[in-house]
Amino acid sequence: MNLKSKIKKVFKIYPFYRFNPYITNFVSHPNKSFILHMLYSFLCISINFLNSYKKNRVTIFFNKNGFYKKIIKEKEVPYILFNLLEKKLNTYQEIVYCHLNNFTYTEKKMSNRDNQQFVYDIEKSFLNKIDDYIRSDKDFDMIIKNYFKSEYRIVNLRIWRYLPGSKNLDNEKVGAHYDRFPHKTVKIMIYKGFFGQKNPSLEILDAEKNESLIFSVRGRDPIIILDSNHLYHKANLPKVNRDTIEITIQPAFFDKEPLFGGFSSGHPYNPFKKNSKVQIN
Questions:
Q1: Which of 77, 117, 237, 275 could, after both became Cys, cross-link 133 (CB 3.0–4.6 A)?
Q2: What are the residue ranges spanned by the domains of the chain?
Q3: Alpha carbon distance 262, 108 (integer Å)
Q4: What is the mean pLDDT of residues 216-230?
Q5: What is the CA radius of gyration of the chain?
Q6: Distance in angstroms (rounded) separating the CA atoms of residues 233 and 242
Q7: Alpha carbons 205 and 152: distance in angstroms, whole number
Q8: With left for phi above 0 and alpha for psi between -120 and 50, is residue 50 left, alpha or beta?
Q9: Which candidate, 118, 112, 119, places its Cα nearest to that of 168?
Q10: Which of 168, 151, 152, 155 is nearest to 105 (CA)?
Q11: Over 90: is that where the pLDDT of 112 sits?
Q12: 129, exposed or middle or buried, with CB in 10 Å at 0-12, 13-18, 19+?
């Protein structure tokens, strides 16, 4: 692969992009971290240029639409994390916003939501289980590698229960929005329960057509991978408790060890730096 081909792969514009990530983000919201992640992604592709990331119907669908959804099977790893959520919510938890340095986080914002109950600390063994689960799933593993054109790592894991009521009207729902993660970040969202037409777990909308519906995540215990930076999405207030797992994934060099930043954390600020343990309360 020559330099020109590498550059094209780094700066490819996919059909589901609603704006140019290489211009819009940097002009409207200059961000040193985004630039570092862009450079990191380019180097990841360069290092992995000998690898051939095959396409199939699933990767083609994702590259066109920016998401892919299916249903988790009985006794799969996500249920272990849902059981962890149940256990943690029934014991005392110390609130910790962020567990790693060199990490973005939002202080107190999430903890002020009285209709969301979070897991504040996740042991390494659970990180390894969900990491193995994603890598052993042929569909998700192929989608991520084909999209990144490199290896990947989990950079954060969040688990919480979304309650149907709140005393604060501002907490009633997560309005439609684009996420603001570094380019080439994907999320995997997993929901426990049954979700029908009137109570989907997540909705993907067309921001340019009066927020018309593109896709709603329905079914029993659905799991979806998506590029939330480029898909306009929202989560309505649940009708019953909605247990949720959110996995944030970014390109990686050689170190693929999963990270847990914290319930109020986002992603490594500088992908070239190590993330040592710290506790921010």
A1: 77
A2: 3-280
A3: 12
A4: 96
A5: 18
A6: 17
A7: 27
A8: alpha
A9: 112
A10: 155
A11: no
A12: middle
In whole angstroms, give the CA distance from residue 280 to residue 56.
43
Residue 251 amino acid letter: P
In three-state secondary structure terms, 139 is helix
Residue 100 pairs in a beta bridge with 277
pLDDT at residue number 19: 82
Q: Which amino acid is at 234?
A: K
Compute the average pLDDT of residues 186-193: 97
Supply 202's token pair: 């997540």
Predicted pLDDT of residue 279: 73
d(CA 38, CA 63): 19
Residues paired with 206 in a beta bridge? 212
Q: What is the pTM of this model?
A: 0.93
Output the six-digit token pair for 52. 């051939």
Domain 3-280: give its CATH code: 2.60.120.620
